[in-house]
Write a structure and sequence with these properties.
The protein contains twelve helices and ten strands. The protein has 323 residues and is of the alpha/beta class. The chain has a single domain, classed as Vaccinia Virus protein VP39 (Rossmann fold, 3-Layer(aba) Sandwich), CATH 3.40.50.150. The strands form two sheets. An eight-stranded mixed β-sheet has the order 1-9-10-8-7-4-5-6, with helices on both faces. Strand 9 and strand 10 form a beta hairpin. Helix 1 packs across helix 2.
């Protein structure tokens, strides 16, 4: 069995240094960029401008303003009932994973269209490809089992010309497959990213949504707002996050030679032991664990590669440093 090299970092308390959203939101700038946001902006208890983060419409308009101001998006929207992603946290994943690529390349982050990423579960918002392309110029393949989500992502791409040549969408016909059917065995993928369903059942997912809304409203909420509900495949799967990632790890072995780094968000620390055991079982060469912190929420990225040092060197020379 290959020797596994682990790296554990100290938990951080702030967003990534390159994250455009690491400071407080500038609502004057955001409302000048997106005037529709203004009606949702009010002074909070600290006399600071803010929005009601329990209001789905306010959160969606905040996202539209952030994407227009910082990522030059002319159009962005999601259908009712789909998750509205927190952009600062999504951006953190992209920046941390860029550092991971750089750590394999003598500290130099590879930029440009030649770097191809696959987003497993791209979703209706298409958020990771948007940020990854705008920040680093990477191209993306976005896969999903939800045709309506892909149609929403396709519409976002259509109305933002710079995304058309940089993002390809692929429908995953078999929900039990993660890579087979959307990843070709002979196509090189520099990076796989994934934000897996967290909960193990619909009931558990609904309870989690109600806890979040109750916390935001400072009172008990018994009915979730539509845009905070999310689609079932966004929120839960049988066995929850740990089983999904263990399946992802097992299936990644079949594509070990044509992907440099596989990665996924892990929301719950208690899942790590089982995930490390699964990685050991498929004989990965290297594991990296990257902590992320957004407010009081702490999560981490777990990344793994099957490529040894010689294979990594060849990959970097032929794909990252050839241009």
């Amino acid at each position: 069995m290959s020797e596994i090299k682990k790296e554990h970092s100290i938990e951080k308390t702030v967003l990534h240094p390159r994250n455009k959203h690491k400071e407080r939101y500038d609502f004057k700038l955001l409302t000048s960029t997106c005037p529709e946001l203004a009606k949702y902006v009010k002074l909070n208890a600290y006399n600071d401008e803010s929005i009601d983060f329990a209001n789905p419409k306010a959160v969606k308009w905040l996202n539209k303003a952030l994407l227009k101001l910082y990522y030059l998006m002319e159009y962005w929207d999601i259908p009712s009932g789909y998750l509205c992603p927190p952009i600062p946290g999504r951006a953190d994943y992209i920046h941390h994973i860029a550092d991971l690529l750089g750590s394999s390349n003598n500290g130099k982050i590879p930029f440009g269209f030649n770097i191809k990423c696959m987003d497993i579960g791209v979703g209706a918002s298409c958020i990771y490809p948007i940020i990854g392309n705008k920040e680093y110029g990477w191209s993306f393949i976005g896969s999903d089992i939800d045709k309506a989500a892909l149609e929403s992502a396709r519409k976002i791409i259509h109305y933002n010309a710079f995304l058309k040549r940089n993002i390809e969408l692929r429908f995953q016909e078999n929900p039990n497959d993660i890579f087979h059917g959307v990843m070709e065995r002979n196509e090189p993928i520099d990076l796989v990213i994934c934000n897996p369903p967290f909960h193990a059942s619909l009931e558990e997912a609904q309870k989690g949504t109600l806890r979040k809304l109750s916390s935001l409203n400072h009172k008990k909420i018994i009915t979730p707002s539509l845009n905070f509900g999310g689609q079932s495949n966004e929120l839960w799967c049988e066995g929850g996050e740990e089983r999904f990632v263990r399946n992802m790890i097992r299936q990644s072995k079949q594509f070990s030679a044509n992907c440099f780094w596989f990665s996924t968000v892990i929301s719950k620390q208690s899942h790590l032991d089982g995930i490390y055991e699964a990685l050991k079982h498929v004989n990965v060469v290297e594991i990296k664990t990257i902590p992320m912190t957004q407010g009081t929420k702490v999560s981490r990225i777990v990344a793994w590669t099957f490529l040894n040092q010689a294979q990594q060197k060849k990959w970097i020379e032929t794909r990252w440093n050839a241009l």
